[in-house]
Write a structure and sequence with these properties.
The chain has 14 helices and twelve strands. The chain is α/β, with parallel strands linked by helices. Helix 8 crosses helix 11 and helix 13 crosses helix 14. It is globular, with a radius of gyration of 19 Å. It binds flavin mononucleotide.
Length: 343
Amino acid sequence: MKSNLSIHSRKDDHLIINSQKDVISSNTTGLEKFRLIHNALPEINLLDVDPSVKIFGKKLSLPLMISSMTGGTKKASEINQILAHSAQKYDIAMGVGSQRIGIENKRSMETFKVRKFAPDILLFSNIGAIQLNYGFTIDDCKKTVDAINSDALILHLNPLQEALMGNGNTNFSGILKKIEMVCKNLEVPVVVKEVGWGISSQVAKSLIDAGVQAIDVAGAGGTSWSEVEKYRITNPSGKRIAEGYRDWGISTSEAIINIRKEQRDTLIFASGGLQDGVDVIKSIALGANLGGVARKFLIAAMNSQEELDETIEEFSKQIQITMFAIGVKEIDAISTANIRRIE
Ligand SMILES: Cc1cc2nc3c(=O)[nH]c(=O)nc-3n(C[C@H](O)[C@H](O)[C@H](O)COP(=O)(O)O)c2cc1C
């Protein structure tokens, strides 16, 4: 098991690299290949547009979440506070970053405790599913939820990142069975996400059959973790290996479409490269229930609380204007009839 010190510096490296380097996938979300269909006669009042959604019994004012990012260090704690303040202010969902470090070191868990800043939000715990093969138990999963009083647990799948990381945890055999055990034994819903390379319809099916209640596609087109790790790898050969994966992955749009084709009722969170409110509504038209944003919100939060608020406010306005411009008053009314593929 790696020392807390190495996880510690990795967490701060991730914040610095993501905010200062170009780590964007050379794959695209695919959302640019779709256009929402303009409605010149919407027959609704913009003021009546209601973008709220209900997820796991909680009402969100917007179909939006701040994707899982950070925790574990002083800087990360400050960022989590800023993210939580905005999540509460705009009544959107938020995930904290991997709480592994908090399980291994109780004091670190404090950096994930955002409930006091966001008493009402839909809050997600987070841990790498791979940890279930490296000593983490169902009890540890319960602790990640109880420690921060979250509403659900996100397990992230990141095989490629672990493989590129240099001494990453790469034994993924038997993980599905363990995810199933977590789903059976936790009192809160379990969500599974990728970290930016997408989830196929086959993998989604296995996860849903195992009891997972929502899939966050975390598709390709945004932050590329092979690029992030490339900046952390010091030897030239390792960097060249990582470089080969810049365009890797299932794009965000492809993942949503393929999963929704086979899963009529499963909750799907769209994330990976979403840039604005139009992207959120496009994702919903393709079959998602909610859009998630990581790096863009992180960069704003690292600048200031005000900048993050402004960014979320822009998402909010665009979501409402976009709904108005396609002539729908409610999120549930958005469907594939509102979007078409161009080319
Ligand atoms: C600084 C940073 C740290 C992240 N840490 C985690 C993590 O601990 N757990 C996780 O599930 N995903 C993590 N992610 C991945 C994001 O949740 C998201 O899936 C990915 O960045 C794609 O979204 P984006 O293109 O909007 O950045 C992290 C992303 C960033 C930018």
